[in-house]
Amino acid sequence: MYDRFKGIFPALLTPFNENDEINFDALRMLIERLIAQGVNGFYVDGSTAEAFLLSFEERKKLIEQTAAICAGRTTLIAQVGCISTKQSIELAKKAEACGYDAISSVAPFYYKFTFEEIRKYYFDLADAVGIPVIIYHIPVLSGVSFSVDQMSCFLRDERFAGIKYTSADYFTLRQFKTAFPQKVILNGFDETFLAGLGMGADGAIGSTYNFMADKFIRILELFRQGRIQEAAELQKEADIIIAALCKVGVMQGEKAILTKMGIPMGPTRAPFIDLTDAQKEELFRAVFRSEWK
Q: What is the mean pLDDT of the chain?
């Protein structure tokens, strides 16, 4: 029932032009490159997209234009999370109208809402659209961590397809998967992708997949074939690159890498700060090592 949500899903970056507008030509180049590499779909308007630095109208346009570029060729998940239920529902309805396969949402944050308020938020979303909902579990940024009992109140409902699980607590991931084996769990931390697979994840949504999706596609293939040592070697290679990204800034670094690859991604939005030439040089040494080309 939920097989279309399994596999490798890049969390798409948002390219900007010199006028600080979304560069949809560059977005098309990125999407076409990733489709050609064999990704299973895209996670649109999430953390990697700088969603909370976009205007509400930009978020709607990003959802709309990504669907137009993909033109039904791949699975699409729209991250519609806002603090406001009303705004999240508006984005969810936009995604459904554009043909998305599912919506996803981070829990409403900042105001330290009660679990009952958060529960109502998610069920209001599910009631508003006719496509599945994927819970975005990212406690390190949202401040909301779901227990197994709390998550069960969603996953018992067939309208909830599963979880984007961005946490290093893999014991809880295993508990979620054991309780609801039919639901999809997508690993969120790229640096522990293989660990997530080992604990029951069905695939992953990742930021670095924008420029090295091929590595993660191969890790998943090797894992499914039981070739764990080979998968671990590829994860190690990816982690060296991820460590270099963390040192300079993940989104800034990813955009610099893709720009060097020929896709003009532009800068990240303020208050992010652009990389210096020295930072780019250090990053490129890690990414473009000859043996990894």
A: 96
